[in-house]
Fold:
Amino acid sequence: MTVLPYLVAGWIFLIGVYGLVTSRDLIHAVGCLAVTQSSTYVLLLAVGYRNGGTAPVFADAPTNSRVVDPVVQALALTDIVVGATVTALLLALVVQLRKRHGTVDPDALSELKG
Amino acid sequence: MTDVLIVVALLLVAGAATAAVLNRDPVRQALVLSFLGLTLALLFTFLQAPDVALSQLAVGSAVTPLMILLTVRKVRRRPGSGGDGADKPAGRER
Amino acid sequence: MSSRVRLWVFLVGAAGFAALFAAACFDLPAFGTVPHPYGVRAVHAALSHHTANVIASVNFDLRAFDTLGEESILFSAVIGTVVLLRQARDEHRKDPEPATVHPPVRRFALLTLPFALLVGLYVIAHGQVSPGGGFQGGVVTATALHLLYIAADYRALERVRPLTLYEIGEAAGEAAYVITGFAAVLAGSAFLTNVLPFGTLATLSSGGTAMVLNAAVGLEVTSGIVVLLARFLDQAVEIEDPGEDDGSPRHTGGGGGNGDDEREPA
Structure:
């Protein structure tokens, strides 16, 4: 338990990069990138967790209660939404590539280039 | 108790991530990604991060898979394509 | 580089990463036991600014400048997508024919739509009090609008979604953020300092500028996601390539799906 969350984050990163490297379809590659990205969220939140802590929201909790680290959560939170728009940008690039070169296979694309 | 929940969620996330990568067909991958978003949201809730979980739930299980599906639809529409799988109804996962 | 070579390069790199990362993991403090000096200080700072949701306080008050950067990434990513997915000169637009929707689906979607919209707006508005905020609520609101696509059809969605308005909304959100920052400068403080009265903890009007910035981000994210999805829907449903046959519907993805594939007969 003491290192499992960190190791899971590492595994998600590695499997995501593996997918990127072996992908034969750019849309699939973008999906793999999204997977890779999620590893950072797992790692950040795992670092910020405290045993017995509650969520850092004091709307109805006493102000001296033990909470988990809010800073890493803020980092992960903004990145999730911003990451989605960047994914959209990459998918738009894939659509354009398909229009120009008629394929979404990265290997075929590098052959086109010569 | 929380520890058990966290461990279960972590294993689910790891499994879903692996499945999302190994599904080579983007349509199936989009569905698995949606499930991955769900498990991540669950994990974040157990890690006492409701804000992040909400964000992940909305983005990971709805917006990203939807955009992938729309892109697949656009990309596979063209007739006589060089791309594989365009005319096969189902996926070509391994 | 052939795919075999690429795989080998990856395997070597991955092995190195795995070894180093695992070594680092076992050297990290055990999960859940770390003291968090920054976290403790952030909690103090948030409470001194009367913001109940510390995460909103970190995003829109303590690290507001950083969020401006994040917001600008979002803004430029949306602009980039809009530019890339515009209708090219040799493409033509075809009106999608209305499709029949199963009555239970239609009823359920129409029933869910107002609630989902309300939840999204609630989440944006209560960002400084309860979990939520502009980023999450914006995504919820934007996706909720698209329930109409499931309930009725694409043209109904287009009617209630004046795209120009959302494009303006996105720019206005970004502008409001910057203007709030400069308002602090005019008030005699540094850029993006929290100069407004803090209000009472855990009420809707607490948090000072955090509340304003939260609303600005909510506007920008909602509009941005709506614009993004509109562009993708345009490409997938309406815009056709020059040589495309207008014939039979070619359903992608036989693997079922979330129903969005089956919206309109091509």
